[in-house]
Amino acid sequence: MLAALIWPAQSTAAVDALLQGQFAMKGTITRADNVQGEHKGQSVKRKWRFDSKCGPAPYCESVVLHRARAKHRVDKLTLKRTGVGSYSGKGKFHFSLRCAGRVYKHGGEARVKISLKITASTTVQGVPFATNVTATYSNPRRINHTQCGGDLGRDGASYTGKIKSQPTPPSAAFDVSGPPARKVSFTDRSKRGSENSPIATRSWDFGDGSAGSGRNPSHTYTTAGTYMVTETVTDENGLVDTATKQIVVT
């Protein structure tokens, strides 16, 4: 593996980095008006997961947030970049309401806004990844879709978060079939890194001055000998790994 992790000093300034993976979020309720089970000043813990598919870059223009809330519910919200290391997005979620003896699964609707700032990052093979974030959540409006009516309240919170595990490069690996015959086939067995970033490219050095690409190439050697074959894989984050094997053809 070619990973190299470098941890910088903490900073309150926003920094650009790829925002990926699961973060442990610690929050404080800053507003709770007529919201059952919440009160101002209450401490909460949440799991937020970020997916960004923008490819190798210092940052993504947008990321998808999977936000866990109470009772194991998960909401999906797209956040768009608003500045250096800063993202914001608006969305909604539904919740059940009881009205006239009947439970309406989507009787209530909450409109929400989340603003986020990346406050620290680390590099893996020169690619920056977010490690720490701060965020604010606001729910200024809840809509009652039942005939019963009534104020459903509103709430808000502030959060700090830290990534639970660092992204890792893919693991290059391949099988060889054919030697000692001069026509040799190669089968890629590489695996994705910890954040499941797809492998974007596979390049091959067949050891005789020839090169190739693709998942499962074949190559014919013109002369007998011992050759060192190397496969290099690069994922969509730009992270790289290599694997090398020695083969003998006659």
Task: Give the arrangement of secondary structure elements.
Elements lengths: L4 E2 L14 E13 L9 E9 L10 E7 L5 E10 L2 E14 L2 E23 L2 E18 L9 E10 L10 E4 L5 E6 L10 E7 L5 E3 L4 E3 L4 E11 L4 E10 L1
Antiparallel strand pairs: 1-7, 2-3, 2-9, 3-4, 4-5, 5-6, 6-7, 7-8, 8-9, 10-11, 11-14, 12-13, 12-15, 15-16
Descriptive terms for the model:
disordered N terminus; 250 residues; 60% strand; 2 domains; 0% helix; single chain; Lipocalin; eight-stranded antiparallel barrel; four-stranded antiparallel sheet; Immunoglobulin-like; mainly beta
Quick description:
It contains no helices and 16 strands.
Structure characterization notes:
The protein has strands at 5-6, 21-33, 43-51, 62-68, 74-83, 86-99, 102-124, 127-144, 154-163, 174-177, 183-188, 199-205, 211-213, 218-220, 225-235, 240-249. It folds into two domains: 5-163, Lipocalin (Beta Barrel), CATH 2.40.128; 174-249, Immunoglobulin-like (Sandwich), CATH 2.60.40. Strand 15 (225-235) and strand 16 (240-249) form a beta hairpin. It is elongated, with a radius of gyration of 25 Å. It has an eight-stranded antiparallel β-barrel with strand order 2-3-4-5-6-7-8-9. It has 250 residues and is mainly β. It is built from no helices and 16 strands.
Number of strands: 16
CATH topology of the largest domain: Lipocalin
**Known CATH architecture of the largest domain:** Beta Barrel
Write down the secondary-structure element order: EEEEEEEEEEEEEEEE
Please estimate the helix content: under 10%
Distance between the termini: 32 Å
